[in-house]
Amino acid sequence: xxxxxxxxxxxxxxxxxxxxxxxxxxxxxxxxxxxxxxxxxxxxxxxxxxxxxxxxxxxxxxxxxxxxxxxxxxxxxxxxxxxxxxxxxxxxxxxxxxxxxxxxxxxxxxxxxxxxxxxxxxxxxxxxxxxxxxxxxxxxxxxxxxxxxxxxxxxxxxxxxxxxxxxxxxxxxxxxxxxxxxxxxxxxxxxxxxxxxxxxxxxxxxxxxxxxxxxxxxxxxxxxxxxxxxxxxxxxxxxxxxxxxxxxxxxxxxxxxxxxxxxxxxxxxxxxxxxxxxxxxx
Length: 282
Hints:
By secondary structure, the chain is of the alpha/beta class. The chain has helices at 2-30, 33-36, 38-55, 108-114, 127-140, 166-174, 215-240, 248-256; strands at residues 57-62, 72-76, 94-99, 118-120, 145-147, 178-183, 199-205. This is 1-acyl-sn-glycerol-3-phosphate acyltransferase.
């Protein structure tokens, strides 16, 4: 059943993406940028609905009260394609630093340009990176939310953390709060796999780290607080979803934490708890 539901969801997910881009592009490009956000945010909401109804995967968000006013850096764990878009409806005017090759994709790249995202050559150094920071400062002065994945690339759930120090430099240069986010969507939407596991998980938004810390102190605090929350959520998510087939990275981490990691991993659909306080997707 999971295979069939995964095939159906994947087909619906990408059809929804392409059709909405084609149908709503005239509206999207005609609207001012701030109002044009309605188009991608509504696509995200529709994607969450499809995932709940077809793949039987639901989620809830904890800690929305920790999101500050104005400009800040959002620093989520990065495990899945899901976490690249999932939080958009809860952000006012987000901006990403992304690889410039995405700008070359027809239509999709035009959407990115319209929303004033910040392209970067990943192999660039020196002056190029300085220009990226200047652009980031310009956007943050407008009260936008800069989304940065501190580990740089997708990591399997429970994998040894590999936080890049670049986020500390950006934190110091921009002088804004950083909001860490812990979650384990990779248990349900694994990287480089088409299977979508049913179940329920939490996204935990942590209290912001205030500006003004030294780079080393900030980096240490970001890693410690995010990983402590991630460990707690891993234990909780596995406990609440005993059907999950866990990757070895998650099993290994659970053994380190002395938490149960052995599940049968059956194909039956699990119970579907409703999100707390109406947040997330049911």
